[in-house]
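Bumping with the actual sequence this time:
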Amino acid sequence: MSDLLIQRTQSAYSYPLLIKNLFMAPVVQNPDQEIVYRDIMRFTYRDFYSRVHRLANALTSLGVKAGDTVAVMDWDSHRYLECFYAVPMLGAVLHTVNIRLSPEQIIFTIDHAEDDYILINSEFFPIVEQIKGRINTVKKFVLLSDEPQTPQTTLPLTGEYEQLLAAASDTFNFQDFDENTRATTFYTTGTTGLPKGVYFSHRQLVLHTLGTLASLSTSHEQGRFHQKDVYMPITPMFHVHAWGFPYIATAVGVKQVYPGKYIPAMLLKLIKEEQVTFSHCVPTILHMLMASPEFDKLDLSGWKVVIGGAALPRQMCRKAREHGIDIFSGYGMSETCPVLTISHVGNDELNPDEEIDIRCKTGRPLPLVQLRVVDEAMNDVPRDGASVGEIVARAPWLTQGYWKDSRNSENLWKDGYLHTGDVANINSRNYVAITDRIKDVIKIGGEWLSSLELEDIINLHPAVSEVAIIGIGDAKWGERPLALIVLKGGSEPPEAREIGAHVKAFIDKGMMSKLALLLDVTFVDQIDKTSVGKINKKALRERFSAQAR
């Protein structure tokens, strides 16, 4: 057996899969390409290379060493991108703090991650000032700011980011170390209990970068990511490393645009002026952009947008296609780094409805992803596009568990597969289609009704701007569906029975289960969202629980 093992020459380089090796590529390939921060700053990859080295020296001078945890509280910026590299390349751990959590949740994540240093945007001073007396591990704070003057604060600031970089050397020798070293930590949004810490190693982040890039480059034309693209994230950098795309964009050496805070006018301005061609976001963010008066004035025919975090509504997909946007789904979760599937249309001859159907599916698994749809006994469901089960997966970039939480880690990896909690079907061509979250499925008299499919149908009503379907208690059926609907501005408000008639038309065509006849309708001004823009169905169930009967 030993004869089958590869024998390595003593002087051969083993090449650990470290983030620093993603960092080196664009400097060689495209040193004059630009990185842009809003309308404030732009510089080249050559400058980026220098700035990351300066940041490493500045952090080291502050006392940061391998094994320390460095937290960042910032909007999407060039500074964040530099931290994506410099911090883990030192052997330290980057904690991307979810700035949209409550102060109590933020202090929990800072203490739980055992942050040693915090790089903080001045906009978040008021939050941290509330809790600074209760943070036990933090040694130093560094100011991140777009303003020339240091704002007033009670935080003991050690220095300002740009000044620290200016004073540091632009040469740093990043050492090799074990590729399984933890590189990043961040926290799930905590819609069920306390936020849970998810962590990834250098090896996992490098393999996720290569696997996702390989998948995006296989398409003949639609949904491709290539060196002439201009990349701008519209998914927060604190959330699963902005879905890992900043690492992908840097490895390829494309022009990158970072928008700061997500303000529709600024996002659309950057898309137009910087000629952005590739982005990703959750449906609620795209809905926000579509509602802007500027949206219809732009030529968006060169814009590719990956939708994730929630199902892509057919009506949104249709409207995006009418504007020329190459919109398509991707799928993953915090625990999967996150990308597991991408929904490319392929080379088939499809009519517009068939094409939209493919774009709205969850997608096909990436290379190296072993994805199954299983029943409760872990048996694979038939690949008929109708039978449903839970998505479970294996891939080399999935988190090994939750930080300091063995019980939930064991549940996550029950039976040797990561359990997503997503209910889906899979067809003979390996396309997966999520029909619901296990916790969001509406259980009516022992049968399951998909909240996502019902939302898709109600979204087709011309007066509906946004809808969320939740299950509420029912003495006879166990649960029944409640539609929470935000109406379009200027639309003639329909009555609840008109929405019911709209749904019944789809039931009569055999496109929706008769269980949807139990639908109740409530019109609302807004729908609760999580900190990353997803519909917060847990909060909605609590808010409307009184409507049980």
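The tokens above came from a reply further down the thread. The chain has a mean pLDDT of 92.
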